[in-house]
Amino acid sequence: MEGWNEITRSPVIRPPKSPSTKPATVSCTVFDEQSDIVWVGDSSGFIASYTGDVLSPYTRFAAHRKPVKQLLSHVKGILSIDEDSIRFTNRRGLMIFQLSSKDHPSLARIGTMEFISPNELMVTAESSLLRLDINKSKITQVIPYKHEIVLIASSKRYIALGRTNGMVDIFDPKSNGIVKTFISNSGSLSDIDLQEHTLVTCGFSQRHGSSVLDPLVNVYDLRVLKPLSPIAFPAGASFVRLHPKLASVAFIASKTGQLQVVDMFNPTDVSLYQIDAGPMISKFELSSTGDFLAIVDAYSLLHLWSHNPEHSSMSSKAPLEYATMPEPTPSKVTIDEDFPLNTIGLPYYKETLLSAWPTQTIFRSAGTIPKPIDSSILQSAQIIDGIAVAPYDSEKYGPRNLAKKYVPIITNSEAGKFKSSKISNSPSKKNKTQENLFEFKESEESNSPPPAFRKLEILYSKFGVDDFDFDSYNQTHFTGLETHVDNSYTNSLLQLYRFVPEMFNFLLGNLAIENLDSNSIIRELGYLYDMMVKSFGHHLRPTNFQQTFSSLQDANNLGLIEKENGTISSTARDIGTRIKLFNKFLLDKITKDELKEVAEVSRSLQSYSIFGIEVESTIRSLYTGAMSTDTSVINTLDVFSPLANSFRPSIKNGSQPSILSYIESSLNTVEQRSMLNEMTGHYEAVEVSHTVKRLPPVLSINLHLKNDELKGIRNNSDWLKPTFYTAPSKGRFTVVENITNHVMANAFEEYSLVGFVCEVTGELDKDKHLVTFVQTYNDFLQKNEWYLFNDFLVTAIPHSEVFNLSYWWKTPVTLVYRNTRNLPRFDYAAWNRGLNDEILYRDHFAYGTREGKKIEYELLTREEAPKPGTLIAIDAEFVTLEEEQFEIKSNGLRSMLKPRKQTLARVSVLRGDDGPKMGVPFIDDYVIVEEGIHDYLTSFSGIEPGDLDPKTSDKALVSRETVYRKLWLLLNLGCVFVGHGLTNDFRTINLSVPQRQVRDTAVFFYKGQRILSLRFLAYVLLEKRVQTGNHDSIEDAHTALLLYKEYLTIKESGDLDYVLDEIYKEGQLLKFKPPEDD
């Protein structure tokens, strides 16, 4: 390392404004690892930065009130500490976050700090070590530590803690324990450094009662935790640094400026230099590239040294931001004493100058799109003299003639919804954002729905949907449902029935039956609820259920299909009406699906006994008195107001009508209408009465409320009831709120509210959406608690807010009550009773599959039946149905509105346990895709055009339902899935696999820098070239299996960290691709 010399020196401390003020001194320095910057902190709390090899001033700002003790460079900016605070600032001087001992008492008497990982710090404080997560800007762990620390250094495996008594503790951040203690010096330490597995220290020794600089630099090998031969430095070592790329090269400097560069493996290779630094050196730093030295002397002059300044750099050369300096417009007219201004002529203006326009002028554009009129206004409007006149709703729109508070558009899409942007927010801002997400009370400044009730949108950054922070919307263990799917309005009702044990157990129990029907709602809903349980608080995308639902012609005829782009299949655009139609359709379709299954397996019908309402209908002619009676079963009860049902409830003095009178009147209805008499061929007046004869354990109610009725309900704080009692009396059901004696208790059945779906209205029609309130048991609190489900937002909510219907924007539409007698519990293993798993041991090809199909797998036998812990390797391939949708903004930036829509095309599953058949596939299914395929992604999926069409394909084609049941069985039988990059595969397939059943090699060989491809890992670890042509899922699954086996071998040997470091080093040389890819 010859050729080092000084290239520039520059003062870095400003002189004091007053001669009586003591000048500041340099307290710390550091090189920036991203840009060519040298950072300097001083004793007055200021931080300054200097760029390039000429040390040009870049930024300067006040960071602390006390002297800056240490600086660290981060990819986002600069970290600094003083005695009791930590501050994170970007390179322009703007604060990202700051933590102080006032808010965090553990930060008292901060000593030093060092990185454990790219986004985690170890901070030394009084009697403790603190782990600080930079992304979350909070202290994640406090580790007791009784010694005072003066110096700290870290590598990828260990942290070296330099104590005041000259000892060095080797700390393992994984186990939070001291693995070794070295006695470095008999006095205090002056400097330490750690690179890879080499630790160097220097300091003072006690001689004749005084401290003198030790002439030796101590060296330690942390692989074996033993000292090596020290390095002699007769001048007395005050500073020592290891070269970041050549760990055997050490830079040693004395206080008086003597510099020695030595190779520890070759002690004869020594270069000596003398730094012209005045009386003494105060600071000594080496850049992360190893090409520059920064030395500060006693006069606060910064000396910059380099051994090859023209062909070296301080950092990775990231560009710096500078303020735009507009160029001054040159004057076209020269005005001086010889050229007066009044000689310049002005043109004649025929129109009024803009500066003279009146202030009340209104600008209108012929191309401006008018604001759409709310449908509720049009519905309530009356035509008077050809003009539609509607009453003004002050509850919805606020008082008249008052300016509304400006709400910026960006509030709906602010940063912080992305994981990658969390670091840019201060902790107070992040906490406030999260609190605002779950705020369920109206603001005094606005009458719009609170944040917890507003319509949610999934936003996409450049990292895709994985970057959206779904976790910040759900702090419970219940699963939220995503919105970017067809028919997302149904999420509310799906969540409601998920918490009805009778419905849940029935649907999961049906999964034991092998049902491969392509349009079975009962099967898809069972799969969905099983996955929601296994997701345990994570979000879920119900694509399989919605794909089956969208394919139903009956649903399309009823206008229930709503595409993701917002198009609806009928004129029934009101979302409240649509969810009530869907409720009726869903329960009727479940009954029809069960009838098919009952005919095949010869068992009794269960759905009628759960939610079937037995109704007796009587038709009586008003002229002849002739009567006819018929009995039928309906699955939902349509509830209208008592007046609509010609019912007069008995109301106590001073009380107001509640939902009970609505329910009672709808259990017994009478209406008059005209009906065709088939015998006479004429219409005649008849009276039609409907009387409920039997109420089911689960009572599903569709509420039909008019606007004038809603106003009365909102003025009644006790309209919605959590329970009611009912019993037949004189041929009809009576509904009461309370029972007064034991005789009534035996006769009456009690019904309790499980939950209900609410329509939330905004000022615009597009803001209308549905939310769900559900009461379920909280295991932690050991009591029933109410929860709000707003798509993927889930939060607990007080009982008072659930039953508060006074808000103008809140309208109940569908309710579910259940009989409290013999309440069943949730049976999460209902699918395991009489489970039919035959599909794993036989083929079930789709209709029309050709006889000459290729078979590349060997079916499982009963002797190989999967059991908990059985290892299987999986890989899936997909095709694209729709491309991504982007929005091009006015500034030219492109933002993603919707990611590409993909569907499953091929799945291969291999045996993974050791044995003669390890790696032999037992599933290799190509999936029929009936929708239009936009892109086969052949180079990635290996799927060729025609492979998924029964008319042209020579593959083993199966339906989506068939392959999904196979994977669902393997999951529930306890198999362990091995693969590479399984997260996206499971998301698209719609599988929620618990982490204990996943072995993802993309995660196992991840070091926090970049995810390594299967092809590169196979080349480096297995010396195998894969994916040389089109991808083959069998080959990919087998490669992932071999990588997992190799991972287990490496982990058992204890060399995993070392191997990962070597893989990434080789990856940087090969650009993370096998050589032939270039």
UniProtKB/TrEMBL annotation:
Regulation: Positively regulated by the regulatory subunit PAN3.
Gene Ontology biological-process entries: DNA damage tolerance; mRNA processing; nuclear-transcribed mRNA poly(A) tail shortening
Cofactor note text: Binds 2 metal cations per subunit in the catalytic exonuclease domain.
Stated role: Catalytic subunit of the poly(A)-nuclease (PAN) deadenylation complex, one of two cytoplasmic mRNA deadenylases involved in mRNA turnover. PAN specifically shortens poly(A) tails of RNA and the activity is stimulated by poly(A)-binding protein PAB1. PAN deadenylation is followed by rapid degradation of the shortened mRNA tails by the CCR4-NOT complex. Deadenylated mRNAs are then degraded by two alternative mechanisms, namely exosome-mediated 3'-5' exonucleolytic degradation, or deadenlyation-dependent mRNA decaping and subsequent 5'-3' exonucleolytic degradation by XRN1.
Family that this chain belongs to: Belongs to the peptidase C19 family. PAN2 subfamily.
The UniProt record lists the keyword Lyase: no
Cofactor requirement: a divalent metal cation
SUPFAM superfamilies the record matches: Cysteine proteinases, Ribonuclease H-like, WD40 repeat-like
EC number annotated for this UniProt entry: 3.1.13.4
Cross-referenced PANTHER family: DEADENYLATION COMPLEX CATALYTIC SUBUNIT PAN2, PAN2-PAN3 DEADENYLATION COMPLEX CATALYTIC SUBUNIT PAN2
Protein name, as recorded: PAN2-PAN3 deadenylation complex catalytic subunit PAN2
Residue ranges of coiled coil: none
Alphabetic keyword roster: Cytoplasm, Exonuclease, Hydrolase, Metal-binding, mRNA processing, Nuclease, WD repeat
Residue ranges of the region described as Disordered: 1-25
USP domain sequence ranges: 479-820
Gene Ontology CC annotations of this record: P-body; PAN complex
